[in-house]
Amino acid sequence: MSIFSKVNLPEELLINIFCRLPAKSIGQLRCVSNPLNSLLTNKHFLKNHFTSKIHFQEPEKLMILSNSTSFHTITIKYNNVFSNFVNFQPTPSDHFVEICGSCNGLVLILNNNDSLVLINPLTLDFKKIPRCPFALDPIGSFSMYGFGYDYVNEDYKIVVISRYDHDNEYEPDILDMFMDIYSLKVGSWKRIKSSPYDHAVAELASGVFVNGALHWLASKMPDYVSVIGGFVLSDEEFVEVPAPSCLDKSKFVFDKLVVLKGCLCMIDNPEGSRINVWMMKEYGVEESWTKFCVDGIDFYDILKPLCFIRDDDEVVVNVDGEKLMVYNVQEENSRDLEVDGIPDRFDSIGTFVESLVSPVDPNLFGIEA
């Protein structure tokens, strides 16, 4: 007998209604009965629910690492700001250091011992990622991380680009680059051929996931021309993504990449209190780059856009890891974002969307593009 036999509505219609509910509400409904829990954890339902959330523009949330064993989530909806403190330590050895990326509601976090953990901030489901067997000696090595979804093979992947500087008195300036990939579907690491680019840039930035690829700023040898390298997760190959034609190709490797409204963006800092934000409206099309400015906000080191709010007129920015501000792109003014309970300084901040995707559940695989 259907779980909806006592309800005078078709099951398909009720499922359609469930798909429009927030992930948190679905989590609560799962506790009502075993049949309802079975339906709401079904792979087909999870697919429909997540794609419906994308369609109805579920707002992004902020995640702040405030200390080594806790985090805050921040929801900005209309004129209201809500914060939630989560005291969460998967194991006693976990001490959170950096958010390395998010995708479909899962967040990749780096610990202080260079181990990785994948967390759903809504459900608190987590998966400890086994250490890479190819990991380099931390002395003299530096790594950049990326996390995204392979839509072709239905697999979440973690990508690590490592560089190893093993200078000595006999062989100075020796720099090796390595690339390793962890597949959540397979549950193992593998080493692939190295990147064709030089990733020895000033900032060890995490990869930015857009359109099925992770993106890093790098240099192309032998002339060290700046490029945007896009690592396509399905092919496990790099492609060169066109940058704004007006930028100095000898310098933009020192800029920053972010994602806003699902678009790849580049942050250019021509002046002390101003940044230019270049947004690629149509992925891969050079002519689709458009620019807006964030001006009049004093900062020392970091001025990084995080997400848009209020019908895309306002953008939330991270100012030196000490405060959040909102910049109105149309009116060209800014204001402090007052959030109760967050610390005076935060170690790392990122965005995520709420979802029911679990890093440990077999239903994890199958989210459609």
From TrEMBL:
<dbReference type="Pfam" id="PF07734">
    <property type="entry name" value="FBA_1"/>
</dbReference>
<dbReference type="InterPro" id="IPR006527">
    <property type="entry name" value="F-box-assoc_dom_typ1"/>
</dbReference>
<dbReference type="InterPro" id="IPR017451">
    <property type="entry name" value="F-box-assoc_interact_dom"/>
</dbReference>
<dbReference type="Pfam" id="PF00646">
    <property type="entry name" value="F-box"/>
</dbReference>
<dbReference type="InterPro" id="IPR050796">
    <property type="entry name" value="SCF_F-box_component"/>
</dbReference>
<protein>
    <recommendedName>
        <fullName>F-box domain-containing protein</fullName>
    </recommendedName>
</protein>
<feature type="domain" description="F-box">
    <location>
        <begin position="3"/>
        <end position="49"/>
    </location>
</feature>
<dbReference type="InterPro" id="IPR036047">
    <property type="entry name" value="F-box-like_dom_sf"/>
</dbReference>
<dbReference type="InterPro" id="IPR001810">
    <property type="entry name" value="F-box_dom"/>
</dbReference>
